[in-house]
Design goal:
51% of the residues lie in helices and 13% in strands. The protein is α+β, with helices and mostly antiparallel strands. Helix 1 packs across helix 2. It is elongated, with a radius of gyration of 19 Å.
């Protein structure tokens, strides 16, 4: 199987297999950045399904893969429940002017 045909689940399963060759049992501390955060989350899910102890999962700058627009503004909008960035800035400056 080549890298471009693997699913996130298959990639995570292969990483879990490699990790278990070095560390048979938890606690496991797993992390990933960007797409790696999705893989780390899936790895943790696999380990939990196998009744292993996952002590920590770190997902840095990770967003749902199905996001169409991955711009910084779109990510902030997603984080703040759909509020538009310009509306958030207006609210911020309006609150800031009352001090």
């Amino acid at each position: 199987m080549t890298g471009d045909t693997r699913s996130v689940r298959q990639l995570a399963e292969s990483y879990v297999s490699m990790i278990k060759q070095v560390q048979k049992h938890g606690p496991y501390f797993i992390g990933g950045q960007s797409f790696g955060g999705l893989v780390a989350y899936e790895m943790a899910s696999i380990l939990v399904e196998k009744k292993e102890d996952v002590a920590f999962v770190s997902m840095i700058d990770t967003f749902p893969w199905e996001m169409k627009n991955r711009s910084g503004a779109a990510r902030l909008e997603y984080l703040f429940g759909g509020k538009k960035l310009d509306r958030m800035m207006e609210e911020l400056f309006r609150v800031g002017s009352t001090f």
